[in-house]
Specification:
The protein is mainly α and 235 residues long. 63% of the residues lie in helices and 0% in strands.
Length: 235
């Protein structure tokens, strides 16, 4: 005969796992975080009613629904908790290689760069476009357009298109040939509008990430939380 205490223990453990998944996300889900408390009340504290199989099934279904809600409403885990407190892989190499070239970036522009990257990584394209617009005004100096300024313009264009669900335009912003040494992805030898369009976005996002990381140390925890997104841009 099945011992109902074993499934009950599983409900308790599942509650703690769900709470952990909620905790490591940048946006906290209070409901998911509080599930261990309810599991303790339902299955640990002695009561007048029996914690039978029906209660366990209903509780398991509730945890499943909360997990789905956590995934789609509160996004991916904060990768600072998963990947540690330092950059790694291709991202670390790229940030180090571009450090000197971006050393002249002001703290204000670097902070805006962090906002642009984080908002875009979160899928908040309207705010990403607005932050990129703000950064463009802060980066303007003289008549020359810097690679970083070009990156802000590219991200602003893509964010606006994504926010309004518009298709790729026939003409779009991209980097110039002289920007190539700062780009993580090399320019294609053969012109392919579709690939070039998205490669420009990847390069722009990585460039603003590097500028933010190298010139705005207070923003590094936020950038670390988006490290997995940044790493995927290299593929």
């Amino acid at each position: 005969m099945l011992d109902f205490h074993i499934p009950a223990l599983g409900c308790v453990l599942a509650s703690f796992i769900l709470a952990y998944l909620a905790w490591i996300r940048p946006k906290k889900d209070i409901v998911a975080l509080s599930t261990p408390i309810y599991s303790f009340i339902f299955f640990i504290v002695p009561t007048d009613f029996s914690t039978g199989v029906l209660l366990q099934v209903l509780y398991a279904v509730s945890l499943t629904l909360l997990l789905v809600r956590l995934k789609y409403r509160f996004g991916r885990p904060g990768n600072a908790a998963l990947l540690g407190k330092e950059l790694g892989g291709s991202l670390k190499t790229y940030v180090e290689e571009t450090r000197d070239a971006l050393s002249g970036t002001s703290h204000e522009v670097a902070h805006n760069a962090a906002l642009v990257f984080v908002r875009f990584a979160e899928g908040n394209y309207e705010d990403a476009a607005q932050s990129a617009k703000t950064a463009l005004f802060g980066e303007k100096a003289g008549d020359q357009v810097s690679p970083l300024m070009r990156a802000f313009g590219i991200i602003r264009e893509h964010s606006t298109l994504l926010d309004t669900s518009q298709p790729r335009p026939l003409t779009y912003l991209t980097f110039s040939e002289k920007d190539s040494p700062l780009l993580a992805k090399p320019r294609l030898p053969v012109h392919d509008p579709e690939t070039e369009f998205y490669a420009a976005l990847d390069n722009a996002l990585l460039l603003v990430f590097s500028a933010a990381w190298n010139a705005s140390e207070p923003d590094r925890p936020h950038l670390l939380a988006c490290q997995a997104f940044a790493q995927k841009l290299f593929t």
